Amino acid sequence: MSIITSILGEGVGKLFDGVKGIIGQFKLSPEEKIKADLELARLQAQSEIILEQSFQSEMEAKKSIIVAELNQGDTFTKRMRPMMGYFGMAVIFYNYCIIPTIQYIRATAPAPFNLPDFFWISWGGIMATYSIGRTMEKRGISNGFTKIVTGK
């Protein structure tokens, strides 16, 4: 059993078994039936080879993406491309770490300002979209959405 057959749940084999069943309903001579069975076996083998090649090329594409990301020298874009991510993290750090520390040193009650819901919704939406786009890109899915999200 090939790896493609195990992944597809023998879908290709079942397809050809169905075709064999249809051909079996025709009144054929034994020689013609053997020729038809051999042709179907050849076509099934070809389709499995094509599926295996596409699987291998997809794996190579994923490998090249990962290698390119690991070899990239720019750490600013390597870790998180959108500046919006850095901005949101800086605002959160300032609000929930710097302000309470300053207020603690001044002996006042720590009270960070309330970030508006708009900030959390927009920043969370941007980061979620970016994460989904990067995940799709790393899995080899390339379309207009991933190009917009990742900037490639």
Our count of domains comes out at 2
Q: Over the alpha carbons, how many angstroms does the gyration radius reach?
A: 28 Å
Instruction: Specify the oligomeric state.
Output: single chain
Strand content: under 5%
Helix content: over 70%
Name the descriptors.
single chain, 152 residues, mainly alpha, 78% helix, 0% strand, elongated
In short:
It contains seven helices and no strands.
Please give the structural blueprint.
Blueprint: H1 3-8, H2 11-24, H3 30-71, H4 75-79, H5 83-105, H6 117-138, H7 144-150
Helix pairs in contact: 2-3, 6-7
Structural summary, described in words:
This protein is mainly α and 152 residues long. It folds into 2 domains: 3-71; 75-150, no CATH class. Helices cover 78% and strands 0% of the residues. It is built from 7 helices and no strands. The protein has helices at 3-8, 11-24, 30-71, 75-79, 83-105, 117-138, 144-150. The radius of gyration is 28 Å and the shape is elongated. The protein starts with a helix and ends with a helix. The model has no long low-confidence stretch (mean pLDDT 75).
